[in-house]
Design brief:
The chain has 328 residues and is of the alpha/beta class. The protein has a single domain (23-159, 216-325), classed as UDP-N-acetylmuramoyl-L-alanine:D-glutamate ligase, CATH 3.40.1190.20. It is 50% helix and 12% strand. The chain has twelve helices and ten strands. The chain has a ten-stranded mixed sheet with strand order 1-10-9-8-7-6-5-2-3-4, with helices on both faces. Helix 2 crosses helix 9 (258-271) and helix 10 (276-298) packs across helix 12 (312-325). The structure holds ligand NAX and adenosine-5'-diphosphate.
Length: 328
């Protein structure tokens, strides 16, 4: 397994070119937050705005739009329900990406919205937080399969709990399908309980690396499995970079909202045309470095997700200095 270094992260970073405009620097769209989790939307959107995408469009609830107008007036806001009816395609000169799911609670309306996002853009999509539950549903799986066949990149960023739920849902669904196809008799409830037990047994003993790999292959996505150490699985069976590990974090990052910041960071890199795998490598590194720099300033105990956000710029500057030192 490869470990992510500052050199790899620095080389993946995008820079504005002399003749760029806000559209050529990439449009990052975020379909995030809910009435229950307004903060997740603010954190993800603010992180994306900080990480260099030229145009940030946030599809959010009214309260999140109100807060964003106050704290990030450069962000354009639209009602979350408007996403499906707008156009989201990209071309070579106008890259873009969509982040969806941070701060969602997993309601039917939200899960439908996640599937709409997967179906309605040819740009990279990052799915996080409560939105991840949509992927193991039949519509979500079908949308992912179509994106995979068409070569459209999808990134998922689960924490350990979300990864476990995704794998269990997947195994459960497969077991149910097998039961049905073999004509095994029994009540629907018994079949579901049996499938759930099998799924728990299958997933129970996996290491985080194995889970990241299983998720990336089963769903056809790049999987960033977050935790004290973070594992990135490319899902590419031909490649020698199946799983990479990031060991440079700090327990100061174990705070609510830091995952929302990470989703915005990776989303902005995707929107600037960085490949899915490189965006995950550079994004997780910058995020971890921001956590470390915040800890240096404030002490590990006192760091909040807002501090990680405010240390993204010094983290990027440190990487840029590294590149300059190497003469690249
Ligand atoms: N300020 C805000 O508005 C915030 C909103 N958030 C949003 O809240 C929604 C629910 O996410 P949560 O993660 O809070 O809750 P979840 O309901 O997704 O998961 C929490 C459960 O998973 C278990 N778990 C197992 N491994 C874990 C791990 N490595 N890290 C965390 N939990 C683990 C926990 O014990 C717990 O039972 C998401 O959409 C998320 O984006 C959170 O990001 C927190 C901040
Ligand atoms: N003990 C730890 N050491 C290093 N990094 C951690 C630790 N705990 C959590 N993190 C990082 O903090 C972030 C937490 O993300 P997540 O669990 O999704 O939080 P939230 O949903 O509250 O935003 C991830 O990037 C994870 O890798």
């Amino acid at each position: 397994m490869k470990s992510i270094t500052s050199k790899k992260a620095a080389r993946a970073l995008p820079f504005p070119r002399l003749n760029d405009n806000k559209y050529t620097r990439g449009v990052c769209e975020l379909v995030v937050g809910s009435e229950a989790f307004v903060g997740a939307a603010i954190l993800a959107v603010s992180a994306a705005n900080r990480m260099g995408a030229g145009y940030i469009r946030a599809y959010v609830c009214e309260e999140a739009a109100r807060v964003l107008h106050a704290v990030q007036p450069s962000v354009v806001t639209l009602p979350a329900g408007d996403y499906a009816s707008a156009s989201h395609n990209q071309d070579e000169r106008h890259p873009r990406a969509t982040v969806v799911g941070c701060g969602m609670r997993g309601t039917q309306v939200e899960l439908r919205l996640v599937v709409d996002v997967l179906e309605s853009t040819d740009a990279p999509v990052l799915v996080d937080g409560g939105g991840l539950a949509a992927l193991a549903m039949p519509d979500g799986m079908a949308a992912l399969k179509k994106r995979f066949i068409e070569g459209l990149p999808t990134v998922v960023t689960p924490h350990g709990g979300e990864a476990l739920r995704m794998l269990q849902a997947l195994h459960e669904q497969r077991a149910l399908e097998q039961t049905a196809s073999r004509g095994v008799l029994g009540s629907a409830r018994d079949a579901k309980e049996f499938a759930a037990r099998g799924a728990r047994a299958l997933v129970g003993n996996s290491t985080p690396q194995e889970m990241a790999l299983a998720l990336s292959r089963a769903f056809g996505v790049v999987c960033v499995l977050k935790g004290p150490d973070t594992f990135i699985a490319s899902g590419d069976e031909e490649s020698d970079r199946d799983v990479s590990a990031l060991y440079q974090g700090t327990p100061a990052l174990a705070k609510a909202g830091t995952g929302d910041v990470l989703a915005g960071v990776i989303g902005a890199l995707l929107a600037q045309g960085v490949s899915a795998y490189d965006a995950c490598v550079a994004g997780t590194f910058v995020h971890a470095r921001a956590g470390v720099l915040a800890s240096v300033d404030l002490g590990e105990t006192c760091v909040t997700a807002e501090d990680v956000l405010s240390h993204l710029a010094p983290a990027v500057s440190a990487l840029v200095r590294k590149l300059q030192k190497e003469g690249n």
